[in-house]
């Protein structure tokens, strides 16, 4: 099934109970988001991370999140993780599929990052935040990267959502929107989220934010918003469109970049939840492609749900 058809068919199911969440004592929250830096593929990943964190130091959000595909847990990347660890504010990790490249286990990656669990939740200022791990093993036979919320994690998610009375945002590396491009059991996950809202009698689960696809997209399925945060570094376009865009030395050290369109400046954003205005706002950030973009390369973008863009749009979600 094509992604566009999946979204169209899924959106056809209506849920009539959505009436807005109880604000209670909810306060304004600001969150810094950066996704898919790809330290092991991007020549200037350190500088991109430093730019984000230096901006966060000035903006002072309540916390920051790196949304996966950060770095492999190898000694050569210790300096990169040290940059992250030096940030003085609250900070959280999501595990991306490429973080286990080179044969690393999730346990090794968590140890390198200094985190005990790969999925967890917490409350802050009248909101509930959930962090998921979409890298559970898929049922065999399976080819390619794992992309699943396994039974144990799915049961934990259901129980976690049942116990909270607070409006909730969910973060994951792989999108929960689409089984073709995100977690394989996205429909099953959506059922849990939608059932949670139905039983609560209000939109308890407001939005799910993810990285992974290196795109800039917002959609709504049965009252829940799904937002994809663009990569901090590049868009993958494959061998058909490969070319050397940077120096020969960089190309030799980072050959994977031949198959991408790198972004000139790092993309990241700051999300603000304003309960008084009933609004979630994602800050816009725009840069340029290094070298020719998709139009100049003759790339026909046939999938409206997966734009090749060097930006993060200023999305707004009413809550």
Shape: globular
State the share of residues found in helices, binned by percent. Answer: 10-25%
Largest sheet, in brief, is: 6 strands, mixed
Q: How much strand content do the residues show? A: 15-25%
What does this structure look like?
By secondary structure, this protein is of the alpha/beta class. Helix content is 23%, strand content 21%. The protein is built from seven helices and 16 strands. The strands form four sheets. It has a six-stranded mixed β-sheet, with helices on one face. A six-stranded mixed β-sheet has the order 4-5-6-7-9-8. It has a two-stranded antiparallel sheet with strand order 10-11. Helix 6 links the parallel strand 6 and strand 7.
Tag the structure with descriptive keywords.
disordered N terminus, 6-stranded mixed β-sheet, 23% helix, alpha/beta, 319 residues, 7 helices, single chain
Set out the fold topology.
Elements: H1 3-11, E1 29-34, H2 45-59, E2 63-66, H3 78-85, E3 91-93, H4 106-113, E4 120-124, E5 127-131, H5 151-163, E6 168-172, H6 186-200, E7 205-210, E8 217-221, E9 224-228, E10 234-236, H7 248-253, E11 260-262, E12 269-274, E13 279-282, E14 285-286, E15 311-312, E16 316-318
Parallel strand pairs: 1-2, 2-3, 5-6, 6-7, 7-9
Antiparallel strand pairs: 1-12, 4-5, 8-9, 10-11, 12-13, 13-16, 14-15
Question: Can you give me a brief rundown of this structure?
Answer:
With 319 residues, the chain is α/β, with parallel strands linked by helices. The chain is built from 7 helices and 16 strands. It has helices at residues 3-11, 45-59, 78-85, 106-113, 151-163, 186-200, 248-253, and strands at residues 29-34, 63-66, 91-93, 120-124, 127-131, 168-172, 205-210, 217-221, 224-228, 234-236, 260-262, 269-274, 279-282, 285-286, 311-312, 316-318.
């Amino acid at each position: 099934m094509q992604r566009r058809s999946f979204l169209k068919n899924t959106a056809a199911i209506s849920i009539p109970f959505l009436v807005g969440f109880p604000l209670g004592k909810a306060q304004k929250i600001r969150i810094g988001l950066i996704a898919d830096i790809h330290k092991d593929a991007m020549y200037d990943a350190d500088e991109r991370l430093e730019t984000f964190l230096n901006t966060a130091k000035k903006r002072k959000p309540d916390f920051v999140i790196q949304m996966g595909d950060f770095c492999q847990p190898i000694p050569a990347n210790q300096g990169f993780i040290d940059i992250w660890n030096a940030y003085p504010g609250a900070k959280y990790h999501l595990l991306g599929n490429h973080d286990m490249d080179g044969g690393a286990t999730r346990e090794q990656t968590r140890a390198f990052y200094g985190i005990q669990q790969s999925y967890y939740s917490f409350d802050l200022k009248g909101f509930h935040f959930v962090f998921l791990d979409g890298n559970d093993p898929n049922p065999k036979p399976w080819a390619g990267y794992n992309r699943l919320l396994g039974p144990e994690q799915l049961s934990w998610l259901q129980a976690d959502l049942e116990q909270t009375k607070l409006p909730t945002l969910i973060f994951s590396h792989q999108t929960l929107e689409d089984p073709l491009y995100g977690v394989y059991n996205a429909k099953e996950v959506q059922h849990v989220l939608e059932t949670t809202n139905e039983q609560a009698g209000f939109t308890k689960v407001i939005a799910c934010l993810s990285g992974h696809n290196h795109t800039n997209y917002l959609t709504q399925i049965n009252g829940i918003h799904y937002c994809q945060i663009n990569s901090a570094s590049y868009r993958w376009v494959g061998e058909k469109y490969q070319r050397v865009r940077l120096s020969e030395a960089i190309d030799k050290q980072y050959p994977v970049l031949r198959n991408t369109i790198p972004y000139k400046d790092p993309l990241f954003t700051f999300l603000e939840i304003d309960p008084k205005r009933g609004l979630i706002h994602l800050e816009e950030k725009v840069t340029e492609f290094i070298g020719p973009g998709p139009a100049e390369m003759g790339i026909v973008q046939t999938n409206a749900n997966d734009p090749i863009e060097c930006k993060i749009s200023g999305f707004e979600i009413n809550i």
